[in-house]
């Protein structure tokens, strides 16, 4: 949960850094969304689990890593939502808009974070059984999660019309199916994983 605080600070620093670059505003917006938000948030959620769970001797089930990644995401998005609703911009909105935003964030942002982290957890679980590809699988999981998180954010912030709703729905459904498949596959793996 507390990873949301450094994420917000790192994101502000990255936005400032990218803002100083002499680049097209659209490119700066893409960098902010994909690197400054999506990659940073997915990386910080992973680092929490890596630091607190993977090195723990009690961690011995492949399925646990997917669950812990999802739990970390739920804590992260809970504090992120609180911080958003305490911001002056949102605080001054009419009550109807605030409730609409709350409902939208509760449903979509919560699922997005949980499913992206579940995706990373799936690739982490695989990496325990394919030690020669451990780094590649971690990079693939983080890359897919950050890319889909970025596309989701880009669609709700930079697109208009139906795309603003259709793209996030497609991403959430696709991630839900993938994570569901991942849970089934990981359940079939041997029960004790060797953590290196």
In short:
By secondary structure, the protein is mainly α. The protein has 7 helices and no strands.
Question: What does this entry look like structurally?
Answer:
The chain is mainly α. It has one domain. Helix content is 81%, strand content 0%. It contains 7 helices and no strands. The protein has helices spanning 4-20, 25-54, 62-86, 88-91, 95-127, 134-158, 163-187. Helix 6 (134-158) runs antiparallel to helix 7. The longest helix has 33 residues, at 95-127. It is globular and about 50 Å long. It starts with a helix and ends in a 9-residue tail after the last helix.
Compile the SSE list and pairings.
Elements: H1 4-20, H2 25-54, H3 62-86, H4 88-91, H5 95-127, H6 134-158, H7 163-187
* Order of SSEs: HHHHHHH
Rounded mean pLDDT score: 89
Q: How many DSSP helices?
A: 7
User: How many domains make up the 3D coordinates?
Assistant: 1
Sheet with most strands:
none
Topology, number of strands: 0
Oligomeric assembly: single chain
Compute the gyration radius: what is it?
A: 18 Å
Q: What are the key terms here?
A:
196 residues; disordered C terminus; 7 helices; mainly alpha; globular; single chain
